[in-house]
Each structure stands twice: as structure tokens, then as C-alpha cells.
Design a protein that fits this description.
The complex is a heterodimer of chains A (113) and B (111).
Chain A lengths: L3 E4 L2 E4 L5 E7 L5 E7 L5 E9 L2 E4 L6 E3 L9 E3 L8 E8 L8 E2 L3 E5 L1
Parallel strand pairs in A: 2-11
Antiparallel strand pairs in A: 1-3, 3-8, 4-5, 4-9, 5-6, 7-8, 9-10, 9-11
Chain B lengths: L4 E3 L2 E5 L4 E6 L6 E7 L5 E8 L4 E4 L2 E6 L4 E6 L8 E8 L6 E3 L3 E6 L1
Parallel strand pairs in B: 2-11
Antiparallel strand pairs in B: 1-3, 3-8, 4-5, 4-9, 6-7, 7-8, 9-10, 9-11
The chains are: A mainly beta (113), B mainly beta (111).
Chain lengths: 113, 111
């Protein structure tokens, strides 16, 4: 079955620690996206990538970093510079031109302890 | 930035009734999409309507788009308990392939 896999489902981060969220897709989609969702709110775009080895900042990129070394993988690192990282993180992918709709992973819930 | 605003923020109806949610947006769009999110899960794509379309159906879903008013509505007919979820609209602007999501409507179907 084709889809997007996010791991881990739950992640706990200590103050000052960097953590990396994994996102893997086997849909052969070119574009991949990372969104942040805070309780009761909509999705805000962190980073997106439309092709391997290239990515762009979204609306709230500060304190985050990404890489796109393989078409299938788009990991997100939450750095210590992100002062309020507790949120639900969603990864998505789509074929060229989003008119086909995005396919989402099941999310990673990150909590600062 | 949030492009879309859904209305109402929350809606509770009896099973079997119809549910209507609205979405307003600010700038010209290429297409508008609706997604469903069950609690604690990822979003699921429901339906896409292009800017040159006015109405689209998919099963129990009916979407309308009024580009002059920059608004869209999602109608779910004959609601079921399984329809309980949050519903988001998302817009794809011309020359910008990334989607911008609204704030969502939380729908509760009462058995």
C-alpha cells in the first residue's frame, strides 16, 4: 500500500535539545511539506520541497531545518532555537501541482518536558 | 498566514441531518480543497473544486464555490456518527503550489 509514514508518533524533547521527525513516502510524489498544528487551530507551513535537493521556507521556518536528499524522505529537525515546539507536526506529499490534493501522514506529537 | 476562515468554528447536529460549513478566503485562487481530520490524526483529502467550477459532488458531499464572494461551502447530507471530525478548507493560489489552510470547523454528530 502506498502512503506516508511519520515516526515517531509521540516525541518528548528536553529544553535545549534538537530532535528529528521522520517522514517517508512511497507514492513517488515530487513535492513534500511540513505543517505545524497547534490545539484547535489550522495548519501552518514550516518548509516545503518540490524536488530533491531543494526546499523553501514556509510561513514559520524559524527554529526548524529540513533536508531532501532522497525523493522518498523529508526529515524535519526541531532545533533548540524553536522556543515553543510543543505541537502536532504533519507531513504531506503531492504530485506536481497540488490540484490533485495532498496525502498526509498520521502526524507526530512533540512535547517539551 | 491563514488564507481561509471556516464558519462556524463548531457545529453539533443530530445524526441524519445535513451539515453545512462555510469557508471564506482573501486572494484569487487556482482551486479550493476540503479536508477532514479525525482527532489526533492526519488530514484526508475530500474534494477539490477548480476556480472555474461552481459546484461539485462526491457521494454525500456537495461543494460550492463563489469566486465573486471569495467563499465556498461544504454540505454533508444525511450525516452519520462517523462524520464527526474537523473539516478544513485549503486554497491553492495562482503561481504558488503550496496550500494554505483555514482554521477549521469542528463537526459533532449526535447519535
Amino acid at each position: 500500500d502506498g502512503g506516508i509514514t511519520q515516526s515517531p508518533k509521540y516525541l518528548f524533547r528536553k529544553e535545549g535539545q534538537n530532535v528529528t521527525l521522520s517522514c517517508e513516502q512511497n507514492l513517488n510524489h515530487d513535492a513534500m511539506y511540513w505543517y505545524r498544528q497547534d490545539p484547535g487551530q489550522g495548519l501552518r507551513l514550516i518548509y516545503y520541497s518540490q524536488i530533491v535537493n531543494d526546499f523553501q521556507k514556509g510561513d514559520i521556518a524559524e527554529g526548524y531545518s529540513v533536508s531532501r536528499e532522497k525523493k522518498e524522505s523529508f526529515p524535519l529537525t526541531v532545533t533548540s532555537a524553536q522556543k515553543n515546539p510543543t505541537a502536532f507536526y504533519l507531513c504531506a506529499s503531492s504530485p506536481p501541482a497540488s490540484r490533485y490534493g495532498y496525502t498526509f501522514g498520521s502526524g507526530t506529537r512533540l512535547t517539551v518536558v | 498566514s491563514q488564507q481561509g476562515e471556516e464558519d462556524p468554528q463548531a457545529l453539533s447536529i443530530q445524526e441524519g441531518e445535513n451539515a453545512t460549513m462555510n469557508c471564506s478566503y482573501k486572494t484569487s485562487i487556482n482551486n479550493l480543497q476540503w479536508y477532514r481530520q479525525n482527532s489526533g490524526r492526519g488530514l484526508v483529502h475530500l474534494i477539490l473544486i477548480r476556480s472555474n467550477e461552481r459546484e461539485k459532488h462526491s457521494g454525500r458531499l456537495r461543494v460550492t464555490l463563489d469566486t465573486s464572494k471569495k467563499s465556498s461551502s461544504l454540505l454533508i447530507t444525511a450525516s452519520r456518527a462517523a462524520d464527526t471530525a474537523s473539516y478544513f478548507c485549503a486554497t491553492d493560489n495562482f503561481g504558488n503550489e503550496k496550500l494554505t489552510f483555514g482554521t477549521g470547523t469542528r463537526l459533532t454528530i449526535i447519535p
